[in-house]
Amino acid sequence: MAFRQSSKQRHRGPDQTGLCVNDEYGFVLVQERLSIVGVKTGRQPLTSTNGMTHLVANGEIYNFLHMASLINDALKFEYYTPRSDCDVLVAFYELFGADRLLQIVRGMFAFVMYDCSTHRLLVARDPVGIVPLYYGWDDAGSLWFASELKCLVGCCAEVNVFPPGHSYFGPRESFVPKPYFQALWMTEISTTRVDLELLKHHLESAVESHLQSEVPFGALLSGGLDSSLIASIATRILRARTDNSSFRLKTYSIGLEGESPDLTYARMVADHIGSHHTEVRFTIPEGIDLVRDAVYYAETYDVTTIRCIVAVMLLARAIRSEGIKVVLSGEGADELFGGYLYFHRAPSAAEFHRETVRRVRGLHLSDCLRANKGCAAWGLELRVPFLDTDFLQHVMSIRPEDRAPGIPSHDDHSALEKRILRQAFADGNYLPSEVLWRQKEQFSDGVGYAWIDAIAQWASKRVTQTEYAAAADRFPFNTPTTKEAFYYRKLFEQMFPGESFARTVQRWIPRTDWGCSEDPSGRKQDVHRGHNRREQE
Q: Where is the composition biased (Basic and acidic residues) (predicted)?
């Protein structure tokens, strides 16, 4: 049954399916593999040399070479060669134990390990939740884990999101996830001033750590600040690494036929950094055709996520068709630096900080979910250097007065969101000034303003007034507040029946108590440069 249920997420790992059935110890492990590091040697499930510890893992361990060196230092008279980046998890656990493993590992990951010698289960998810993980129990009392919710439909009545930064180590009968990742910025407000050079260094180091791959890779390029910076930094690093000044990173952008702010700026960045650039264009009918698939693959009914993931899936399919398996992207910067336009309305520095903490801790249910699952729908891995653990720790430890938008002055740039990130890369010709100082456009807006209007109208027309009037009775949890939201909720209920599944979803909305519009589109915020013009029309 586990093999059959896992087939529902085979799109995530189309290269290989690995199976381990252990009747003696009562567990089954199935892994759908997208081979990127250790292509020929890293097939999963991975088993220790003594045959007693078994692992399935999803994601990338970015410091696996460092962990391998620590393993070799401890072995002294033997030499350990990792079969893949995830293989170090088994070897490191056996030598140093679960606690030290979770303290030192860096990457985006969700893994399940079973130690037959101690009858203990080790489950962990990265600090942000870049990689998804769910769990549930079936009627027989068996504990299930899966990267995607759909694998638990039909076998688990009660399901839960495995929280980011949490782990469990112990007998399966006592399973309760507990936090292993805790940071001062989660509860305290820093007074440390920004050091722009240090900020720049940390981001460059994060990007470099995310470039390990044995397969072709590229970068998403929306034309906004975040993805453009990542692509520019990666290009410089790869040119230096290969001693090839003419190296061209493959970059990709998407937008509506005939109307897309992002395509214009992405083309400008591609020309500036000398990338091999591809534009993917889609029509509104093509996007509408994917709405049902968007709900199925995203496993959510959140309006923002559905609006966004349609374009992500269209772009991922085009990229994968070129043989690319890995892409870099700019997710996470808006949460760390308060980049969403509603942050301009933060009533105080303390409230600004608390809201960035809330957004970072909710990434696994919003941007990370959309980016990971939208790309994984076509067997494409997405990496997010802004959410590197060490970079995350550095940025969130900067005082909120520096991370927040400044006070408007004669310098138009001082009031922009993410200003310290822009300032850190203002010198060195990383980006065209038009992009470096471009105002935030949310991805679903940037692909073409007409897309948001069209999908909202299309979805709303599929809900009658009678249906909508009964929304609170039909959906008492996360009751839809628009007909568009109601339609997505109906689709979700068809695919993922039961309130337990509905409770895995979090709605993304701005802070209405700050006087912001509830509509997640950035255009609805009064600080958007097109807002006042539209109000006058």
A: 520-537
pLDDT of the residue at 449: 85
Give every strand in the sheet of 250-256, ordered side by side: 276-282, 250-256, 217-220, 326-328, 381-383
- Residues facing 113 on adjacent strands: 55, 122
Q: b/e for 489-515, b at 16 or more Cβ within 10 A?
A: bbbbbeebeeeebbebbbbbbbbeeee
Token pair, residue 156, equals 């688990």
CA atoms within 13 A on the CB side of 321: 9
- Does residue 411 surpass a pLDDT of 60? no
Give residue-wise pLDDT tens across range 306-360: 999 999 999 999 999 999 999 999 999 999 999 998 999 999 999 999 999 999 9
Contact 101, 169 (CB under 8 A): no
CB 115 within 8 A of CB 51: no
Alpha helices by DSSP H, listed for 192-324, are 196-209, 225-242, 261-273, 284-288, 291-298, 303-320
Rounded CA separation 485/347 (Å): 29
Mean pLDDT of 284-290: 97
Residue 184 has what DSSP assignment? G
Q: What three-state secondary structure class fits 322?
A: coil
User: What's phi and psi for 480, nearest 5 deg?
Assistant: -60, 140
| 303 CB-contact burial (10 Å; exposed 0-12 / middle 13-18 / buried 19+) | buried
Share of the chain above pLDDT 70, in %: 93
pLDDT at position 526: 55
Residues annotated within a binding site: 85, 220, 254, 329-330
| Continuous H helices in 342-475 | 349-361, 367-376, 389-396, 400-403, 419-424, 433-436, 443-446, 449-460, 465-469, 471-474
Binding residues for L-glutamine, by number, are 85
Q: Which two tokens stand for residue 2?
A: 């586990």
Q: Tell me the pLDDT tens digit for each residue of 67-92.
A: 999 999 999 878 899 999 999 999 99
- For residue 62, give the DSSP letter: T
Which residues does the annotation place in the binding site for ATP?
Answer: 220, 254, 329-330
Q: What gap in Å lies between CA 443 and CA 459, rounded to an integer? A: 19
Helix (H/G/I), strand (E/B), else coil: 202: helix
> pLDDT tens digit string along 473-496?
999 999 999 999 999 999 999 999
